[in-house]
Amino acid sequence: MEYKAEKVTPYGSDESKTQQVQEMFDSIAPAYDFMNRAMTFGIDKIWRRIAVGKLKGKPVDTILDVATGTGDLAFLLSKKLKPRKINAIDLSEGMLSIARQKSEKKGIDNITFETGNCLDLKYADNTFDAITVAYGVRNFEHLDKGYQEMYRVAAKGASVCIIELSTPVNPIALALYKVYTRGIIPTIGRLVSRDRRAYTYLPESIAAVPQGKQMLQIMQNAGFTNCRHYPLTFGVCTIYIGEKL
Fold this sequence. Notes:
The chain is of the alpha/beta class. The protein is built from 9 helices and 7 strands, in the order αααβαβαββαβαααββ.
């Protein structure tokens, strides 16, 4: 099945969405952490902590962190869950370079940051005890394929945890959200990152990505069970959880 989000691209060029996303994140990598904190007023840290908390309760030895970016979720997973190994992948070498620098400063030795595409994972079947994606699913060129690959490499009993930006349902919250995401964020993003399209693409991709029950259905179609979602902060962020039995 084809989804609207798959057609929304950063630059509208003839290149694939995957290639455009890679180029975009290479472009904005130096400004990415600052913009994350500024856009969310630091609440993104709380969202990650809530997500990691939902993975507690059973042993987690190996984790795959997809679209790891500059590594913030991987670092939190390492600290809170203490797995033996985390493979953290991203399309953008620019983002991974920053993640590696941060990892070295923190003295973390159980995370491997490596280039990888969720649509074609290099790992064997039934490898990971948990799979996470923070703010990356809307960038997948093919949503069904991405979830199918994550299901393939998940071990039996593994959980998948998706953190994704979403659109508020409340009319008042939605009105404020539109002003902020369509006006303020793109303006600040252009000034800070020097990329004219990256932070215009952001609200476009959020609006287009499947949300709520539709996202849960995609997860279920890939094979995940016991799928549920948790809207946060008036619905501007949603955590999705599923399991592989």
